[in-house]
Write a structure and sequence with these properties.
With 271 residues, the chain is mainly alpha-helical. It has 12 helices and no strands. Helix 1 runs antiparallel to helix 9 and helix 4 runs parallel beside helix 10.
Length: 271
């Protein structure tokens, strides 16, 4: 909607009017969420909406919540490590796509990628299914107002990267609000509305595996394309190995990765 478009562009125009045209150009190159990573939770959300609607219609609110929550650990196994690849190799990615002249876009890209770490589920899917569409509008308003309050001061204090920092920070109250509304809608609590432990395990492994990947990235000098390919493949392979050994990735999770594009059986039987 219009509010969503305004919110997504607001930080860019703060950079334009507070910092200047040159900074705006670099910022616009980096201030976006990687679509390949962002599309998965929204695709899964669209696929499970009929199941959620049926559960709510039959008065089974907790069942709807469990269905929605069951997608998060699986989606995290793809979204989180891929996001870490872009966090580690943001400069290679920018140089590869746009050239060395736009390396100033690296920090905004990294900050926007931090937001992707939270995009492991479509939060609006369960709200729409449960009829709480007002919460979605309120979510956008809170996000916009938080961004507006933070972006301009941070642009003056930090410079061109300030509005990107503001965008990350603005997601904190908005996500808290959304989880609160989902908890109220499903008669649950903030403690049980999200699979904190399962998500935390994936995030912890991804962060631990990032340490040797970052060390390699800075110790070895390769071309941007080679850097991105070697570090990306190496990181994802090591993440898969460590997560499998830790029991975080199970056999059915490998099956999920293989079939997510078909959008079949995304929440059936834990697979």
């Amino acid at each position: 909607g219009i509010m969503g478009q305004v919110t997504r562009q607001f930080d860019k125009y703060v950079v334009l009017y507070v910092i200047g045209v040159m900074a705006f150009t670099d910022y616009s190159v980096g201030a976006w969420e990687i679509p390949l990573v962002n599309v998965l939770p929204f695709s899964i959300g669209a696929a499970i909406v009929p199941v959620l609607v049926r559960s709510f219609a039959q008065g089974r609110r907790r069942e709807a919540l469990e269905t929605w929550k069951s997608t998060i650990p699986k989606t995290s196994l793809l979204v989180v490590p891929i996001s870490f690849v872009f966090l580690i190799c943001a400069d290679d990615f920018i140089e590869l796509l746009f050239g060395r002249a736009y390396l100033g876009a690296t920090v905004p890209l990294r900050l926007y990628t931090v937001i992707l770490l939270w995009r492991v589920v479509e939060y609006g899917a369960i709200l729409r299914a449960g009829g709480d569409t007002k919460a979605i509008l309120n979510f956008m308003l809170i996000l916009f107002l938080s961004n507006a309050v933070l972006s301009i001061p941070l642009a003056y204090l930090v410079g061109a990267n300030g509005p990107a920092i503001a965008t990350v920070l603005a997601n904190v109250p908005t996500m808290a609000y959304v989880l609160h509304r989902i908890a109220r809608l499903t008669d649950s609590s903030m403690r049980t509305v999200f699979p904190w432990a399962a998500y935390g395990r994936v995030l912890g492994i991804a962060a631990a595996v990032a340490v040797p990947a970052v060390a390699f990235r800075w110790a070895v000098t390769l071309s941007p394309a080679a850097d991105f390919a070697v570090v990306g493949v190496g990181y994802l392979t090591l993440f898969a190995l460590v997560a499998s050994l830790a029991g975080t990735i199970r056999r059915e999770d490998w099956a999920f990765v293989g079939r997510w594009l078909s959008m079949r059986q995304l929440v059936a039987g834990g697979g």
